[in-house]
Amino acid sequence: MLMNCYMRENITQDENSVKSLLHQLLDKTDSLFELVKSIDKQCIEDKQDFQNKIDQVNDRITAFSKKMCTIDEHQTQHLYDIENSVKLVKVDQDKNFSHVHNKIQSLADRVKDLPSRTQYNAKNFEVEKSNENIDYRSVNSNTANTSKTYIDQSHTTIRNSQIFPDERKEKTLIIGSSIIKGIDANKVGKDVHIRTNRGATVPTLTEKIKKSNIQHYKSIILVVGGNDASSRIHPEAFKEKYDDMIKTVKSINPGINIAVSEICPRRNVDTEIYNAILHRVSTEHKLKIIKQTDAFVSRGGDLVSSYYHRDGIHLTNQGTILLLRNINKVVNIFNQTTISQSNNESNEQHGKRQTIAKTFNGICFNCGFYGHHCKDCHTL
Q1: Which residues neighbour 191 within 8 Å (Cβ) at sequence distance 6 or greater?
Q2: Three-class SS string for 290-303?
Q3: pTM for the whole thing?
Q4: For the chain, what percent of residues have pLDDT higher than 70?
Q5: Which of 321, 292, 319, 304 is nearest to 229 (CA)?
């Protein structure tokens, strides 16, 4: 019995100890929970505070971005205004340049025709003087009133004939790319003008024509297209651009006679398809076509080397003369009288035989003059 009582007391003590420990553990657990809870709350508060700071930074970034966008818009608008101002200035400069260029060209044409004007006025002066003498001698046989009327009419006729004498001249313009750079102005008529535009294509030549004064020309010969062919432009695009050039010429001078020259054969490109386009254009617009291909190609289909420089594109002196001969078959650009006189003077100066000009009516491939063979040319 005592033993059992003792054991029960021990068990009771142990239970109390365990309970005490459990209570202590629970207290510590509660304390730990409170601590964790407070830490979690602090973390939430810190997180919220951090998020608020991030939001503030984002707001500042957004405001800064908007401000920068506004500044960029102002700068863009300012640059756009500057660009428009530059364009307007450029347009004004182009207009002024075109106006000055036309005046210079007109002045140059007048200066070039000054000798012919002088001869023309001198001739009219002689006619006027002759008419005055005739009228003076006829005073005795006619009434004074009739004589005065006759003199007034003769003066009126002469003055009317002196107005714009240049407009009655048939001037011709040969314009094109560097393929015509070798043409010597002394080898063509005095009323034939040459305008070379190095590296010109059909569109660039169209722009040149727009800025040129072609209203006083009777005929225009277009020698362009080789550079377009070398660039491998699509044939239909080439036709469209050539049509535009023809329309530009007609809009400036509706009564002008237009002649289209074939593209001379080139080593770096087959010009056949582009020349076919030129034939189509000339047919549709009812223009003259100047054939070049057959003259520059041998029977075997190769380029005649004596007509070309080493690049197989640009023409030698002989090639240029052949080009002019082909043009002259369609549009008269040679002054036969002037060339014959020049040949005779040159042959006399160098002791050449004068009978050559009478027996040979062809053209010399060396100097470009008629009346002698290349082997007899005085320039060799």
Answers
A1: 169, 170, 171, 172
A2: ECCHHHHECCCCCE
A3: 0.49
A4: 67
A5: 292
C-alpha separations of 63 from 21, 189, 192, 279 in Å: 62, 77, 72, 68
Per-residue pLDDT reduced to its tens digit, 134-185: 444 443 444 444 444 444 444 444 344 333 434 435 799 999 999 999 998 8
Query: What's the full length of the chain, in residues?
Result: 380
The pLDDT-based confidence of 108 (bands split at 50, 70, 90) is low
What is the chain's mean pLDDT, rounded? 76
Q: Which amino acid is at 255?
A: G
Half-sphere exposure of 206 (CA within 13 A, CB side): 16
Is the sign of the CA dihedral 169, 174, 175, 181 positive or negative?
A: negative
Residue labelled with tokens 């651009």: 241
CA dihedral angle for residue 127, residue 133, residue 138, residue 144, rounded to 10 degrees: 90
Return d(Cα 163, Cα 112) in angstroms, integer.
18
Q: Which residues pair with 261 in a beta bridge?
A: 290
Beta strand segments in 224-300, E: 257-261, 288-290
The residues, ordered by sequence, that sit 6+ positions from 106 with a Cβ below 8 Å of its Cβ are 213, 216
Give the model confidence (pLDDT) of 178-224 as tens digits.
999 999 888 888 889 999 999 999 999 999 999 988 999 999 999 99
At 350, the amino acid letter reads H
Give me the residues paired with residue 308 across strands: 315
Helix (H, G, I), strand (E, B) or coil at 100: helix
Distance CA 256, CA 251 (A): 10
Is residue 369 packed enough to be buried (19+ CB in 10 Å), middle (13-18) or exposed (0-12)? buried
Q: Helices (H), strands (E): how many in the chain? A: 11, 5
Query: How far, in Å, CA of 293 to CA of 275, rounded?
Result: 9
Q: Residue 351, by phi and psi: left (phi above 0), alpha (psi -120 to 50) or beta?
A: left
d(CA 208, CA 249): 11
For residue 285, what pLDDT band results from cuts at 50, 70 and 90? very high
Three-state secondary structure call for residue 288: strand
The C-alpha atoms of residue 330 and residue 261 are separated, in whole angstroms, by 10
